[in-house]
Amino acid sequence: MRSRYLLDTEARSAVERWPLDLSGAGAGLRGHDRWIRGFAAARRGRTSEARTHLEAMESALRGTGVGNPDLPIMADELRGALALAEGRADEAVPILRAAAEAEA
């Protein structure tokens, strides 16, 4: 629901304030939470925070071999959003294009 709310409203600060207990959650849900929090941070220009979420997401993907095929695509989307936020559109466009093609 947090993800849908953010994507529909772009109310990034509201998403950041919603508490979410992920202590018993699986790697897929934790990865999804990292994605949406990183995406919100990137859109707000908080690149250090976005990078922290991306690194945690990538680490989880490497360590668990998560069976959700969407998570690697989501990591690429976050990587592209971060590149855009850092002013590296030349790097962001191919990353985002590849993610969109993989998702299709």
Plain-language structure description:
The chain has 104 residues and is mostly helical. It has one domain (2-103). The chain is built from six helices and no strands. The chain is globular and about 40 Å long. The two termini are 22 Å apart. The model has no long low-confidence stretch (mean pLDDT 83).
Q: Please report the distance between the alpha carbons of the first and last residues.
A: 22 Å
Which stretches of 5+ consecutive residues score pLDDT under 50?
A: none
Assign the structural class, choosing from mainly alpha, mainly beta, alpha/beta, alpha+beta, or little secondary structure: mainly alpha
Number of strands: 0
Order of helices and strands: HHHHHH
Shape: globular
What value does the Rg take, in angstroms? 13 Å
Note the beta-strand portion: under 5%
Helical fraction equals over 70%
Number of domains: 1
Average per-residue pLDDT, rounded, comes to 83
Oligomer class: single chain
Main sheet attributes: strand count, strand direction, barrel closure: none
Q: Helix count, per DSSP?
A: 6
